Amino acid sequence: MVGNVGVNRVRGNCLDFKNIRNLRQMVYQNPGGFEATQKGYFYQRAREQDIALARRTIQGQRFWPANFALWFFRPEGACPPTWYNQQNSGRFKKHCFFQPNAGDCPSIY
Question: What pLDDT sits at residue 14?
Answer without folding.
Answer: 95
